[in-house]
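Quick bug: Germin-like protein output formatted oddly.
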Amino acid sequence: MGRVKSDPDPLQDYCVSPSPSSHQQIFLNGVLCKDPTQATVSDFTTSALSRPGNTQTKPFMTNVTVTTTANLPGLNTMGLTMARLDFGGSGVVPPHVHPRASEVTVCLDGVLLVGFVDTSGRVFTQELHPGETFVFPKGLIHFLYNIDTVSSALAVSGLNSQNPGTQIVSLSSFNSKPPFLEEVLKSAYDINGQDVARIRKSLQG
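Here's what came back:
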């Protein structure tokens, strides 16, 4: 009996089928490839991760710089993304998920507290010192936090998707557009309307 393979993972949140009668631009699950004979060495290199990011942006005091097909065209179809994570004092990459990728992070400078929670509610956390590595499984809520209140920290992550997607739990809940119905947030988080308004304002930075 022959093997049955599943469909390839999507590279975007959704790909809605157009009406048979519609005449519109074609959207692909990914990015078009250019003529291979026109490829150059510059397509396979980037300096995007060489520059420190601004870590003074509230409320999280972090900056994440990623490689994309825009700054690294040769990345297309490779199923890979690299990210530079700059942390200010007490900077945090808040609880979030990558729906299309697992992630491996290497601490390069400073000390980070990292962790994830699995679907049973079990939490795995670890302090990362320079040179140490941690893996975040695909689709699970995870975070990274600079435990030093003054000094900066730096890490690099690799993800096994060209477009891993990122959903920060707090922003997705309180800053969605259009916004979640207030009653849903009040019931989900056991808070009142004033709390909802305060959290929304705080997350706007």
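Actually, after a second look the formatting is fine. Helices lie at 169-174, 182-189, 193-203. Closing.
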